[in-house]
């Protein structure tokens, strides 16, 4: 059985657990960097990216997470997770993990009153997906190696580069598990190569 | 493709993103930056923290919009603000300013002693206090997207927050094993909307996030509330009334994430300086107890 870790420093952890278990995989909370060796793939959930970054620094996550990605283990970031995985952030903010060649603008749609839900077409999926955007970031620019998976009003909101998958919105707040399905396929493919 | 704002999913989802985090009371931009740097998931912009409201007496109202604006400009994390219970216009003003979350709060002097705000009418989400499941269900019925214990604000005394969290949890457990025909009587006894109670019974949990608030003064207090099943914590007077707010704030954030790591909480608690002094609840008269405000 596949084991998927959810970075559990803060944020919507339980919601990802439900989705992972619904697709028949095992979910575990990741609270220490040593635990990364126990998992086949990692989800960085929605939450507050600044809070998660403080705790990632204090508990020594940055190096081990980069190593995890370099070992070709898949990582999936939703919302704050996407902010943390981006190579560049707009404005003067310094990037965090830099594992996917995208430039991200935080809180791109405005404040909470501008948060919204909609449906999107996603590359590789036949059915549309429900998408919940909460103080969401967008992908301002994507590098050549990056595959754009979904857009909303001309803004890129989902993308993949190699073993890293990101989206601006929160599939974990819906019943729809199609994107998690894509991530699980990525994990299976990575294991075939290894 | 339609684009819907202010839906239940969007409003409740915002609170779900705050889980496992600490929301800190701040009275100016400088404190807001300290809170953000320490890892707060949001700040509550106020004119005075609850212990100072208690000391000052008089009528406590919505904060001066200048303070709220100053805080909103200082940080990128969400900014919350308080409106008086039943004060529809204070709530609308805060919504118009772009505040991310409103607290219809007993810390302020109620504007209406009979009715709470119909929160489902708003695009901005609300958090409300509760002491038991009936109060929790009534607030959900009015459209609250997040709950918190009332505790006893501004006292630095955890006892009421513990009481309220345990009460809600015990009452949820009780209804989950009830037969369906017993539920209507329980709804009557709790003063809770039947449909919401039925939803809670079916899910075995509240449909919204429930934080702890009202008396959290130390990292161990925050960890205790997490251990009792809180989704996160609000810290009001505790941080900026302590000797070393930076250290204190960071320690509470860490203790909330690693709430079962007792070695760590011990280390975090060392050399923090003294916490706020605190008040024995039994020394407060009924009129002085903020938790009695609202119903």
Automatic annotation (TrEMBL), chain A:
Active site residues according to the UniProt entry: 79 (nucleophile), 170 (charge relay system), 172 (charge relay system)
PROSITE patterns noted in UniProt: GATASE_TYPE_1, PDXT_SNO_1, PDXT_SNO_2
Keyword Lyase in annotation: yes
Molecular function, one GO term: pyridoxal 5'-phosphate synthase (glutamine hydrolysing) activity
InterPro entries the record matches: Class_I_gatase-like, PdxT/SNO, PdxT/SNO_CS
SUPFAM superfamilies: Class I glutamine amidotransferase-like (SSF52317)
Keywords: Glutamine amidotransferase, Hydrolase, Lyase, Pyridoxal phosphate
Superkingdom in the source lineage: Bacteria
Keyword 4Fe-4S attributed: no
Pathways per UniProt: Cofactor biosynthesis; pyridoxal 5'-phosphate biosynthesis
Residue numbers binding L-glutamine: 47-49, 106, 134-135
Assigned EC number: 4.3.3.6, 3.5.1.2
One Pfam family recorded for the sequence: SNO
Catalytic activity reported: aldehydo-D-ribose 5-phosphate + D-glyceraldehyde 3-phosphate + L-glutamine = pyridoxal 5'-phosphate + L-glutamate + phosphate + 3 H2O + H(+); L-glutamine + H2O = L-glutamate + NH4(+)
Family from the record: Belongs to the glutaminase PdxT/SNO family.
Function field: Catalyzes the hydrolysis of glutamine to glutamate and ammonia as part of the biosynthesis of pyridoxal 5'-phosphate. The resulting ammonia molecule is channeled to the active site of PdxS.
Subunit structure: In the presence of PdxS, forms a dodecamer of heterodimers. Only shows activity in the heterodimer.
This protein's name: Pyridoxal 5'-phosphate synthase subunit PdxT
Organism: Cytobacillus purgationiresistens
UniProtKB/TrEMBL annotation, chain B:
Protein name: Pyridoxal 5'-phosphate synthase subunit PdxS
Keyword hit for Lyase: yes
Domain annotation PdxS/SNZ N-terminal: ranges: 8-213
EC number: 4.3.3.6
Pathway(s) served: Cofactor biosynthesis; pyridoxal 5'-phosphate biosynthesis
Record's catalysed reaction(s): aldehydo-D-ribose 5-phosphate + D-glyceraldehyde 3-phosphate + L-glutamine = pyridoxal 5'-phosphate + L-glutamate + phosphate + 3 H2O + H(+)
Assembly, per entry: In the presence of PdxT, forms a dodecamer of heterodimers.
Function according to Swiss-Prot or TrEMBL: Catalyzes the formation of pyridoxal 5'-phosphate from ribose 5-phosphate (RBP), glyceraldehyde 3-phosphate (G3P) and ammonia. The ammonia is provided by the PdxT subunit. Can also use ribulose 5-phosphate and dihydroxyacetone phosphate as substrates, resulting from enzyme-catalyzed isomerization of RBP and G3P, respectively.
Residues annotated to bind D-glyceraldehyde 3-phosphate: 166
Organism (species): Cytobacillus purgationiresistens
Family per similarity comment: Belongs to the PdxS/SNZ family.
HAMAP family the record matches: PdxS
Pfam family, one: SOR_SNZ
InterPro entries listed in its UniProt record: Aldolase_TIM, PdxS/SNZ, PdxS/SNZ_N, RibuloseP-bd_barrel
A molecular function (GO) term: pyridoxal 5'-phosphate synthase (glutamine hydrolysing) activity
Residues where D-ribose 5-phosphate binds: 25, 154, 215, 236-237
Keyword annotations of the record: Lyase, Pyridoxal phosphate, Schiff base
């Amino acid at each position: 059985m596949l084991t998927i870790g959810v970075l559990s420093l803060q944020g919507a952890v339980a919601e990802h657990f439900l989705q992972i278990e619904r697709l028949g995989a095992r979910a575990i909370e990741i609270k220490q960097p040593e635990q990364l060796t126990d998992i086949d793939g990692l989800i960085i959930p929605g939450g507050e990216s600044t809070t998660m970054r403080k705790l990632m620094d204090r508990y020594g996550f940055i190096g081990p997470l980069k190593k995890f990605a370099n070992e070709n283990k898949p990582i999936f970031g939703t919302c704050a997770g996407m902010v943390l995985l981006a190579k560049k952030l707009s404005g003067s903010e310094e990037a965090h993990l830099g594992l996917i060649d995208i430039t991200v603008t935080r809180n791109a749609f405005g404040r909470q009153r501008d948060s919204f839900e909609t449906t999107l077409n996603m590359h590789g999926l036949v059915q549309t997906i429900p998408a919940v955007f909460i103080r969401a970031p967008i992908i301002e620019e994507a590098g050549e190696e990056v595959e754009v998976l979904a857009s909303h009003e001309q803004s890129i909101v989902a993308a993949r580069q190699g073993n890293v998958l990101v989206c601006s919105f929160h599939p974990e707040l819906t019943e729809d598990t199609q994107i998690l399905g894509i991530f699980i396929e990525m994990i299976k493919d990575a294991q075939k190569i290894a | 493709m339609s684009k819907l704002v202010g839906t239940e999913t969007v409003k409740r989802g915002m609170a779900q993103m705050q889980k496992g985090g600490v929301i800190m009371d701040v009275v100016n931009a400088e404190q807001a930056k300290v809170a953000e740097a320490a890892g707060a998931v949001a700040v509550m912009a106020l004119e005075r923290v609850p212990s100072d409201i208690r000391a000052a007496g008089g009528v406590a109202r919505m904060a001066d919009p200048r303070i709220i604006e100053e805080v909103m400009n200082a940080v990128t994390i969400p900014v919350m603000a308080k409106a008086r219970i039943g004060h529809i216009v204070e709530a609308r003003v805060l919504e118009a300013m772009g505040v991310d979350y409103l607290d219809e709060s007993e810390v302020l002097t109620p504007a209406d002693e009979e009715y709470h705000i119909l929160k489902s009418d708003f695009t901005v989400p609300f958090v409300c206090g509760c002491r038991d499941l009936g109060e929790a269900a009534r607030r959900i019925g009015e459209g609250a997207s997040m709950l918190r214990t009332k505790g006893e604000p501004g006292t630095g005394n955890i006892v009421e927050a513990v009481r309220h969290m345990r009460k809600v949890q015990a009452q949820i457990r009780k209804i989950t094993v009830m037969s369906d025909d017993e539920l209507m009587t329980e709804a009557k006894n709790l003063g809770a909307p039947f449909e919401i109670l039925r939803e809670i019974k079916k899910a075995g949990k509240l449909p919204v996030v429930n934080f702890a608030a009202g008396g959290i003064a130390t990292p161990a207090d925050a960890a205790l509330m997490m251990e009792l099943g809180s989704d996160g914590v609000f810290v009001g007077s505790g941080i900026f009334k302590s000797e070393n707010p930076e250290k204190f704030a960071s320690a509470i954030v860490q203790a909330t994430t690693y709430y079962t790591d007792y070695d760590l909480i011990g280390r975090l608690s060392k050399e923090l300086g003294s916490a706020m002094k605190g008040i024995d609840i039994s020394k407060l008269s009924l009129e002085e107890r903020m938790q009695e405000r609202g119903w």
